[in-house]
Amino acid sequence: MTHTLKHLSTLLAQGQASSVELCQDYLARIQRLNPTLNAFITVDPARTLAEAAAADARRAAGNAGALTGVPIAHKDIFCAEGWLTTCGSRMLSNFVSPYDAHVIEQFKAAGMPCLGKTNMDEFAMGSSNETSFFGAVKNPWDVARVPGGSSGGSAACVAARLAPAATGTDTGGSIRQPAALCGITGLKPTYGVVSRYGMIAFASSLDQGGPMAQTAEDCALLLNVMAGFDTRDSTSLEREKEEYARALTQPSAQPLAGLRIGLPREFFGAGLSGDTAQAVAAAIAQYRALGATTVEVGLPNSNLSVAAYYVLAPAEASSNLSRFDGVRYGYRTPEYADLTDLYEKTRAEGFGAEVKRRIMIGAYVLSHGYYDAYYLQAQKLRRLIANDFAAAFQQCDVILGPTAPTTAFKLGEKADDPVQMYLSDIYTIAVNLAGLPGMSLPCGFDAGGLPIGMQLIGNYFSEARMLNVAHQYQLATDWHARAPQL
Amino acid sequence: MSLSLDDVNRIAKLARIRVNETEAAGYQTQLNGIFGLIEAMQAVDTAGVQPMAHGQEVFQRLRADVVTEPNRRDAFLAVAPQTEAGLYLVPKVIE
Questions:
Q1: Could you tell me if residue B48 is inside a domain?
Q2: Chain B interface, best mutation among A364, A370, A376, A420, by max B CB count within 10 A
Q3: Quick check: is A173 in a domain?
Q4: What's the CA gap between A129 and A135, in Å, rounded?
Q5: What is the total count of domains within chain A?
Q6: Do A96 and B55 touch (CB under 8 A)?
Q7: CB pairs A-B closer than 8 Å
Q8: A129 backbone φψ class: left, alpha, beta (φ>0; ψ -120 to 50)
């Protein structure tokens, strides 16, 4: 069950396994391990196996694509027709989606069966997966620790080999931080590359879907499926379809000769744990051995990214989540006196504490008289942060640093302290604000045996190149191939 | 800046979230903590900086004014808490 997508694709193509057999194996593993890990909210074996049988029939008819029959898990933020789609919330705990997200349509068209819907922080608001109405996900490397968030179920199920790959979404680090904490590879594409249609909205100007898998090569294959222009998302970018695996090269003596890696001094200061700093330093040495050169760069406004983010994201969330009012879908309070009572009680009972906090921050910063001081000021800081990256990319091709300041923390350790929790995304948020692509890949383990992730940040639309930068590291190391004993 | 209990209750009202007295005190502490983090923003001089909403210079697309969606009224009403005669039901608003 340690197979990569690439390997499973070969097994299917050579007739050594059928999609039904693969799905049965994964479903059996989910049945055994999910009660401990809580990585899935919904598993529906009959539906999965029907999709697998259809994929096998398609292959038999000679119409298979590269990934036809390879199963995948989807974050429960993606609407999938006929599947319970909860977004980790009581508010949608009874919502069976009547339609497919664009991303789901793309995976269906590729013939990839869905293994289930993965657990997540409620409405993607959290960095530990503890805000889910369906309970916390456990980190497969140590079940007393968090998997990160908000795509914690997706990260945990790939790390535990309950699925060969999963989808995630990233608003402030929600693909990269859990990928780092669970020891897998995850990519947040350039904003606008993956359609947000049918992806339940949190902060629309920042939300972006992306792949989570064992390797960079697998992420390239998945991004080929996910990316694409979609008229139903007004921020979807109209671009030529790309082949994201095109830049992946074979191993050679100096495969990255000529690559300039920028090291932002702000990402290596106070707050970074010693083990993480050491592992990232070793990765930098590895990159030099592969032929890359390094240059120190500055991102002087990056220290403002958390503040700007906690204005922009809650403001957009308060607007987006106004649609949950107990009228058209989802939860409705059982008893109410009038319409206002219905709204207020439905939202008080349907949302958890973190979601309510963020809606309230958003309602405040958007209220009369405060717009310029908060939302507009945060959008100006966003420009300064993006300008920092633009200046850095004059000196380098890709930026490298830690993904998160520490490895996985204990369940409950930060649950009552929102501000401490927010700081676990300190290195990832600036990337969303600028709209750049970023990825996390495994680069070592701490003294306690917990995985460490490093982050690569690229310029706009440089995913294919970044994926090769990660791929070359993974050809030379085996951190990404390590799996927890379960 | 520091939010009072009255501020918290006003925000909860704006957000259409029922908050009782005990909860309001908790929110006051937590929201003030978060605003403490946000206030770092105010010290930055942003005179002349253009606000940014999107990483790319994009413009709202226009499309022909034609029907593009199929009629799926029954499927969408089926997930609503309460419906009747093809309509959503809510408590009476106008006497």
A1: no
A2: A364
A3: yes
A4: 8
A5: 1
A6: no
A7: 167
A8: left
Angle at the Cα of A338 (from A336 to A342), degrees rounded to 5? 50
Q: Is A89 a catalytic residue?
A: no
Contact yes or no for A407/A148 (Cβ under 8 A)? no
* Domain membership of residue A145 as a residue range: 5-255+466-481
- Residue found by looking up tokens 């009959």 in the block: A46
- The answer to whether A174 is a known catalytic residue is yes
A43-96 confidence digits (pLDDT tens): 999 999 999 999 999 999 999 999 999 999 999 999 999 999 999 999 999 999
Domain assignment present for residue A199? The answer is: yes
> d(Cα A30, Cα A162) in Å, to the nearest integer?
5
Query: Is the CB of residue A232 less than 8 Å from the CB of residue A369?
Result: no
Q: Is A138 a known active-site residue?
A: no
Q: Does B23 reside within a domain? A: yes
User: Looking at residue A86, which CATH number applies to its domain?
Assistant: 3.90.1300.10
Q: What letter would DSSP give residue B44?
A: S
3-state secondary structure of B5: helix
* Total structural domains within chain B: 1
Nearest CA in chain B to A92: B79
Which ipTM score applies to this complex? 0.95
The predicted model scores a pTM of 0.97
In whole angstroms, give the CA distance from residue A178 to residue A155.
6
Phi, psi (rounded to 5 degrees) for A434? -80, -15
The boundaries of the domain holding residue B18 are 5-42
| Per-window interface: B 49-68 vs A, CB < 8 A | 49-56, 58, 60-61, 63
